[in-house]
Amino acid sequence: MSIVDPNNTGYVSFDSFMDFMTRDASDQDTADQIIQSFRVLANNKPFITADILRSELPPDQAQYCIQRMQPYRGPDAVPGALDYTSFSTALYGESDL
C-alpha cells in the first residue's frame, strides 16, 4: 500500500492507482500488471468487491468493472466477491471470456 498510498491516508486515488498500474511498464500494459493492481486494492485477496471498487475508482470506471466482472467462485469467496483475474485476462485477450 505504501506504493499507492505514500501518505498513509487509507485512500488510493485514481491517479495513484493508474501510476501503479503503469509503473515500469513498456508501451503496453499486461493482464498481469492489471491483476497486480487489483490485488493491491483487494488487500491481497483473490477477489474484489463492488464496495472496494466504488471506494477506490471513479464512479464510471467502478461501474464498468462491476458490470463486467464475473462472480468469484473460489473456496474463500464472500457474498458479492468479483473475479478480477478473469476480468483482466479477458480485457487483454488472454482468455475467451
Automatic annotation (TrEMBL):
Q: Does the keyword Phosphoprotein apply?
A: no
InterPro entries from the entry?
EF-hand-dom_pair (IPR011992), EF-hand_Ca_insen (IPR014837), EF_hand_dom (IPR002048)
Q: Supply one GO molecular-function term.
A: calcium ion binding
| Domain of life from the UniProt record | Eukaryota
EF-hand domain boundaries: 1-27
Assigned keywords, A-Z: Actin-binding, Repeat
What's the protein here called? Alpha-sarcomeric isoform X1
Q: What is the lineage of its organism?
A: Eukaryota, Metazoa, Spiralia, Gnathifera, Rotifera
